[in-house]
Design brief:
The chain is of the alpha+beta class and 274 residues long. It has ten helices and seven strands.
Length: 274
């Protein structure tokens, strides 16, 4: 009766209780997602079995089982840290990549992406290897991503230079970067139909101009014939850029930084542009 009276006289349920339950449920859900398909899943199943045995030892006179479980539990925490250190690191890394934390790391990741793109474009330019790298901004490029080969890989100098090697199957087309990751390669882009283009502009340059006429994406182009680097922004092609100039324009467009001294202001055509 006393137990029943305690249950009936519980404090009033408040919205803080709802938040508490929601947070605990979310933590359990994320933990299950992390351990799914790993050896930690077997560890979790074993832990549930140990808890069941422990509660059974409390309900029934199983003194030896209760003593054994209490003795072993003292060392379980240290065993888990040693045996599952890789899974723990992965879990903490996953927690740090949550949207709330990604908001603060966005500028740093954008800077790293710019450096990788500039380094790759510079190396491809020296070797006169044609390339077309598109960076998504506010307007999504899902339709163009689906036209290529999905990658979903970290942006890196090595991967970008490998994609555009003539011996690879991905070199013909554009590589599209979304949220600081290479979403796809060998993507097809619309060609510009605007008159008055220089005759020395090839398909890559026309595709870069055509795409940026339709959206706010940035397109870095490396000419296969001349080895020059260009940047297409809002349908305008800035040509014959150095690595420093390309970096400055990308930083200004993606990180809201000021144009470097001596550089044309954003939106102003560079020498020999379209």
């Amino acid at each position: 009766m006393n137990r029943l009276a305690e249950l009936l006289n519980r404090p009033e349920f408040t919205w803080w209780d709802a938040v508490d339950i929601l947070l605990v449920s979310l933590l359990i859900y994320e933990a299950l997602k992390l351990i799914r398909g790993t050896r930690a899943m077997q560890m979790a199943a074993g832990s549930v079995l140990v808890l069941i045995l422990f509660y059974m030892s409390q309900l029934f006179p199983l003194q030896t089982v209760a003593w054994l479980i209490r003795t072993v539990l003292v060392y379980v925490v240290f065993a888990v840290i040693v045996l599952f250190q890789s899974d723990i690191r992965r879990a903490l890394s996953h927690l740090g990549s949550a949207p709330f934390f990604r908001y603060f790391a966005r500028a740093e990741r954008a800077a790293e992406t710019i450096e990788e793109v500039v380094d790759a474009a510079g190396m491809l330019s020296k070797g006169k290897v044609g390339a077309l790298i598109v960076i998504e901004r506010e307007i999504g490029l899902r339709n163009y991503v689906e036209s290529g080969i999905p990658l979903d890989a970290e942006v890196s100098y090595d991967l970008l230079t490998t994609i555009f090697q003539p011996t690879t199957a991905l070199h013909d087309g554009a590589a599209i970067i979304q949220e600081n990751r290479i979403a796809a390669a060998a993507c097809f882009l619309p060609l510009t139909v605007g008159p008055g283009l220089d005759r020395d502009l090839g398909t890559r340059h026309r595709a870069a101009i055509g795409l940026t006429e339709e959206c706010d994406a940035l397109a870095v182009v490396v000419s296969e014939e001349r080895g020059e680097m260009s940047l297409a922004v809002r349908g305008r092609l800035h040509r014959r850029l150095t690595s420093d100039q390309l970096r400055a324009r990308l930083q200004a467009a993606l990180m809201q930084r000021r144009w470097m001294p001596g550089e044309p202001a954003p939106g102003v055509e560079a020498e020999a542009e379209r």
